[in-house]
Amino acid sequence: MSQPLTDVPEGVLLVDKPQGITSHDVVSRMRKLFRIKKVGHAGTLDPMATGLLLIMIGKATKVSQYLMSNDKEYTGTALLGIETDSQDAEGEIVAEKPVPELSQEAVLAEMKTFMGDQYQTPPMYSAKKVNGQALYKLARQGKTIAREARVIHISKYEMTHFELPKVSFLVGCGKGTYIRTLAHDLGQKIGCGAHLCELRRTAVGKFRIEDANTIEELQEMSQSVLRRKLIPVNQAVPSHVL
């Protein structure tokens, strides 16, 4: 384990979150590895998801709201014919329907209807709070409540692979978009239901997954290398934000 840092660094670190751990788990590991108290993240990734997580260290935590507002890019796969209560592969199956004989063109046509601004209803299994209570806590109690739909923006929704019952895609979206809900809603439009079975975040604003550090690399990283890897706050956000 690294020794405590006497001169606490600050900046943004790009991390490639692996599957099976939470975003907060990554934050906890950073705190333990480098003995830094002030660590946060911008934009939660579900345990099932992998990919780019922005870790903020020191005073960089003050710009978390700006970083979370950045547009994001994901790759993912929807599995048609099966719906789950969480809208992803971690949930319990709630409905199964046969997948019709769909052409690639027919699915593409449905995907195009999601482009631009639209309303999306947050899933029950989400961290969004209603009357001060996180929805996922209610969902775990078997409760379902009305959720207010909110405006989201889809700038890109491209099919990358088509092999029924799976449809893989690349999506670019604005803040607050649930990709598992996008997969679920695509299944609803097609008529057979669907859930998200794979998800990877590839970009947040100008930051790309290709520049991210793996958990294994972090565990071997010295304090001096960490400092070199950190993106200064004035490079991570525009000057008017500071």
Write a compact overview of the structure shown.
The protein has 242 residues and is of the alpha+beta class. The protein has eight helices and 14 strands.
Describe this structure in words.
With 242 residues, the chain is α+β, with helices and mostly antiparallel strands. Helices cover 25% and strands 33% of the residues. The strands form three sheets. Strands 1, 2, 3, 4, 7, 10, 11, 12, 13 and 14 form a ten-stranded mixed sheet that branches. A two-stranded antiparallel ribbon has the order 5-6. The chain has a two-stranded antiparallel ribbon with strand order 8-9. The chain has helices spanning 23-34, 64-68, 104-112, 135-140, 179-190, 215-220, 223-229, 233-236, and strands at residues 11-17, 39-42, 50-57, 72-80, 82-84, 93-96, 116-120, 129-130, 133-134, 150-163, 166-173, 194-204, 207-208, 213-214. It has two domains: 11-69 and 206-241, Pseudouridine synthase (2-Layer Sandwich); 72-203, Pseudouridine synthase (2-Layer Sandwich), CATH 3.30.2350. β2 and β3 form a beta hairpin. The chain is built from eight helices and 14 strands.
